[in-house]
User: What shape does this take?
Amino acid sequence: MNRESVRRRPNWLVSVVALLGATAAISIAEKPPAAFSVVNIEILDSEDGYPVPGDSIFFTGETVHMRYNIAGFTVSPTERVRLQYRTEFHGPGGKRFALPEGGRIDTELAPQDEDWLPLVRVAATLPLHGESGTYKILLRITDLLSDRKATREVPVFVRGENITTSRSLIVRNLSFTRSEGGEKLPAPAYRPGDTVWANFYITGYEIAEDNSFNVESELEILDQEDEVLYAFEPAGERGSPFYPRRWLPASFRLDLEEGIPLGEYFVRVLVHDRLSDNTYQTKEVFVVR
Assistant: This one.
């Protein structure tokens, strides 16, 4: 076909081409954009490890590693992508157990990046003295080119110490064993020359707005006449952790002399909360026979 024939094509052909172009433009305009979202969330067994099931159990003090992709983002006419992400970490009661993290993705796509999805990695260490329960990792993303936003909440199931907390100062679960970390004795009984092991928890002390606490304790061994046979050095613990510490573990050991008289003896624990100025005292019995 020569140039002359192209210039003199029939008017109906020009109309059809124009109509087809208009139809295509309307179709593109009415096509809904892909959903801007967090996809492919995976919890990993280590920083660069393998995915684990979503209902896996983590222990306090462990680090949770996670990764995810961002889909449905806007690409500018110059093939630019601009995204912002933020991660928040919350314990069972809603308190943050780690500082929020965040960042930006600002990059230019190449022709081979047609199926590319941005990858974000997350890592957070669970509080060492956290409670059991469902912790939550909140993922927030923003498309800076379109101002679209999306969030996803990822549950993390954590097993910690199952200590019943209290609103008032108290000593819980004072138990005797025959060895350090051994099984609790239902009826604590020892022989002369044995070693008495025991442990307990302190809870219900005041926690300030900055999560600070200040607790002291005294421990004594008494005979049946309430006479003090032995007094341990007073102990105390204070701090201001990022995540509130709702109980304090304590333990002691007592080496019984070979010539100790047989009979009942008592362990008396006196706890003093320095912030509230409250005190609590308890007394537990063990037998030498």
